[in-house]
Design a protein that fits this description.
about 400 residues, alpha/beta, FAD/NAD(P)-binding domain
Length: about 400
């Protein structure tokens, strides 16, 4: 007898879960997402800086789901709540029954409430709309400098990035690389644009290896990025960032990548959560003591077998999705399930243009063009897989649903 699996969230984890579950003939999959597209957030740095276009970072979920023919159904609505008794997901206009449920609703930027004015005066990159807004602003700055008379304006135009983790570093590097390229054509009019990377930690990329930190810092400095570490922001207004040591920085535009919290959907679900609203799951990634409701990706606190917290990355989201898909299959077949365990297989950081720094399996270390090619290959493989499915979905668009 076929089982219905409902997946809430069309991010990296949600799509990987669909891929792994749709291959079984006795499983019907329903994907629910309020957005009609999948946002490749890991490529946001290139989009913001104008190197990628919208089609490089967003794919149509309806066409992607159609690529599975009759195996996967897409509901383009916001999931509002879960009726655990009836085993139903409640959306804006309907209720969808599940035998197994996978929550993959991701996370959003955590604009820390203790920093007055941060949320009102900065932008995140966790969703496509915010990334689009910042891209428009960045292009507008470049355009105005191109139109201005040479040497007419010597006042610096400061673009501030709060948070020197992976996202912040990649955005800073890509924008700085674009500015450096423009400086060769429009000269000093581009050089007045400065990138500031700000973090309260003692170093950029806290928690990452010394190899990645050291080589990333060298690259950022070469690109002209102003790095402010051990810099505690006290408050932000519409023109200045104020630090606890009494200093201040005048800025034109600010994005914040300094933290995440689980999305709003988590708040509607009664279950144990941590301080950033992520679900606290058991070792099989179940919540609420259930055996058929799972949480994966950034919406849940994920640990390895030693109890160490794993970073909220696309890689961990996909590994948790693969594990949960296997769990569902084993539960259906009444087989024993091992606790979830995973680690970070590797890390690549895009650092502007054709340059990157990376590590694989903790002992392979690469930088420069070689690392760029490896990162590009990984991204291209993911992107190609999505588009092959979309192409199949386009051909199958007239299949009755």
């Amino acid at each position: 007898m076929s089982k219905n699996v409902v997946i809430i969230g069309g991010g990296y984890g949600g799509l990987r879960a669909v891929e792994f579950l749709a291959k079984y003939n006795d499983i019907n999959v329903t994907l629910i997402d309020k957005n009609p597209y999948h946002y490749l957030q890991t490529e946001a740095y290139g989009y913001i800086a104008g190197r990628f276009d919208i089609h490089d970072i967003a794919i149509d979920l309806q066409k992607w789901c159609l690529g599975f023919k009759r195996k996967v159904f897409f509901v383009n609505e916001r999931a509002d709540s879960i009726d655990f008794g009836r085993q139903e997901v409640i959306t804006e206009t309907k209720s969808t029954h599940y035998d197994y449920l996978v929550i993959a609703t991701g996370a959003q930027t955590n604009f820390f409430s203790f920093i007055e004015g941060l949320k009102d005066n900065s932008h995140g990159v966790k969703n496509l709309q915010r990334a689009y807004n910042f891209r428009q602003e960045f292009e507008d700055i470049i355009y105005k400098q191109l139109q201005s008379e040479e040497h007419a304006d010597k006042n610096e135009i400061n673009l501030a990035i709060g948070g020197a983790g992976l996202s912040g570093v990649e955005v800073a590097a890509e924008m700085a690389n674009v500015i450096q390229a423009y400086s060769k054509t429009i000269g000093d009019r581009a050089r007045v644009i400065k990138i500031y990377l700000i973090d309260a930690s003692e170093t950029i990329l806290p928690g990452m290896s010394s190899y990645i930190v050291k080589n990333t810092q060298k690259r950022l400095e070469k690109l002209g990025v102003k790095i402010l570490t051990s810099a505690f922001i006290s408050n932000v207004d519409n023109s200045h960032i104020y630090f606890k040591d009494g200093k201040k920085l005048h800025y034109h535009f600010m994005i914040f990548t300094g933290g995440i919290k689980a999305g709003n959907f988590n708040s509607a679900v009664e279950s144990d959560k941590n301080r950033i609203n992520q679900f606290i799951a058991n070792q099989e990634l179940n919540i609420r003591g259930t055996k058929n409701v799972f949480a994966i990706g950034d919406c849940v606190e994920i640990r390895d077998k030693e109890g160490n917290m794993l970073p909220p990355t696309a890689q961990i989201a996909e590994k948790s999705a693969e594990y949960v898909a296997e769990c569902i299959r084993k539960r259906m077949d009444s087989k024993q399930i091992e606790p979830f365990d995973a680690d970070v297989s590797g890390m690549f950081i895009a650092l502007g243009g054709k340059y990157a720094v990376g590590e694989m399996f903790k002992f392979i270390k690469v930088k420069g063009y070689t690392a760029y090619i490896l990162k590009k290959a990984i991204t291209h493989a993911y992107y190609l897989g999505l588009h092959l499915r979309i192409n199949a979905g386009y051909k199958n668009r007239n299949i009755p649903r």
